[in-house]
Amino acid sequence: MTKQPTLTKADLIEEVLRVTELPRKESETIVETIFESIIDALQKGDKIEIRGFGSFRTRQRRGRVGRNPKTGEKVDVPAKKIPFFKPSKELKDFVNSPEAAPSEAAPS
Questions:
Q1: pLDDT at 101
Q2: CA-CA-CA-CA torsion for 61, 67, 70, 72, nearest 10 degrees?
Q3: Greater confidence, 69 or 3?
Q4: Nearest CA to 54 among 5, 91, 93, 29?
Q5: The pLDDT value given to residue 12
Q6: Dihedral over Cα of 48, 54, 104, 36: its sign
């Protein structure tokens, strides 16, 4: 089985660098700022909506009793918030339509 390619933060920085022709440090700052803004908003409980891409929000997960897989011992798992991403209809369509490249379909 071959490993699927993975897009990393470094790849995103390279793409910003290529498209904008900005210096590497500025490209890194742009990508970092986007991620930090999303994280900060989620920590505050805000919803992030990016038209044509999707939305990020948090969901509350209830506490439960789990089991330690090694010992079988019962363990209390506390309630917590988890990040949740819901793709937009446009993103779902792009993913399911290989002939339409996002750069061609997205208005400039």
A1: 55
A2: 180
A3: 69
A4: 91
A5: 94
A6: positive
Domain membership flag for residue 36 = yes
Residues 108, 103: Cα–Cα separation, whole Å = 9
Asked, for residue 29, whether it belongs to a domain, the answer is: yes
* Integer Cα distance of 60 and 63 in angstroms: 9
For 56, the domain range is 10-67+74-99
Based on its alpha-carbon atoms, the radius of gyration of the chain, rounded to whole angstroms, reads 19
- Sorted by sequence, the CB contacts under 8 Å of residue 64 that are 6+ apart come out as 77
Could you tell me if residue 104 is inside a domain?
no
Q: Where are the alpha helices (DSSP H) in the chain?
A: 9-20, 24-44, 89-95, 102-105
State whether residue 73 is helix, strand or coil.
coil
Q: How far apart are CA 87 and CA 89, in angstroms?
A: 7
- Report, as an integer, the average pLDDT of 20-28: 94
